Amino acid sequence: MHLKRWLTALVLIPLILLVLLKGGRLVFVVTMILINGLAQWEFLGLFQQAADRARKAKVLILGSLLLLSFCTAASPQGRALPLFVLVACLFILFLFYLLSYEYIQELVWDLAANTLGLLFLPLLLGHFIWLRYMPEGEWWILWLLFVICSGDTAAYYTGRALGQKKFYPQVSPGKTWAGTWGGLAANVVIGVLAGLWFLSGVKFFSLILLGLVLGFIGLLGDLFVSMLKRRAQVKDSGAILPGHGGMLDRLDSLLFTAPALLYARLFIFQV
């Protein structure tokens, strides 16, 4: 298990650096669409009883359109477009259900699963595209990946070594208080060290606060996805990443932190 985790990380890290620092904006957008497609497919798979392949495919297409709309969000003139596209995607999805009403057995459950599948992943992942299109956006994203991934790793190993008291066993049986505190500590330490290296215009104490807040928000994202997997009675959302599970398992802490970092940059740091 440990060997698989580290081997997967050794493969992924160079690819991430290549896409972020050398790939340019177009490569990044295409990568995000692929990541979104994999994660959405896994997410809808958690509700397999209510989502067949045809309906999954429609949600994936709408999610890709929503993601693409974030390419314009870096400019003040284009910031309304993602909201417009979101409304249009919801309209198309609802129209599809209206026309398919007589063929769908559990309408409310099916509609809820696919609507959440459209809102949860593309809408949140789109903030990565918006962030990437801003000045020095690639370095802010890289900093976020360092902070969240180091926190996840520290939480995992601290919890295994020192964890006895469970944090929230009803939702995440493996998470402990020791692992939670170890993860938050890593969020802060790596946030400061990487921030002083990567980010310009952000002060030392701001990095401490930002690392702590994003670590807490990432924890909420982790617990939310764990709740969905618990409800679906599965350990991992998929198996595409050996030792880590599925794409959704790797994104859980990042989904909420990307919007939080973007809005912090826009409205607090203004850099």
Description:
The protein is mainly α. It has one domain (2-269). It has 9 helices and 2 strands. It has helices at 2-22, 24-45, 53-69, 81-99, 107-132, 137-162, 177-198, 204-232, 247-269; strands at residues 166-168, 172-176. A hairpin with a 3-residue loop joins strand 1 and strand 2 (172-176). Helix 1 packs antiparallel against helix 2 (24-45). The protein is globular.
Please state the overall shape, judged from the principal axes of the Cα atoms.
Answer: globular
Largest sheet: 2 strands, antiparallel
> Helix- and strand-based class?
mainly alpha
- Total discrete domains: 1
CA-based gyration radius: 19 Å
Could you tell me how far the N terminus lies from the C terminus, measured between alpha carbons in angstroms? 41 Å
Provide the succession of SSEs.
HHHHHHEEHHH
| SS element count, helices | 9
- The helix content, as a percent range, equals over 70%
* Spatial strand arrangement across the major sheet: 1-2
Instruction: Note poorly predicted spans.
Output: none
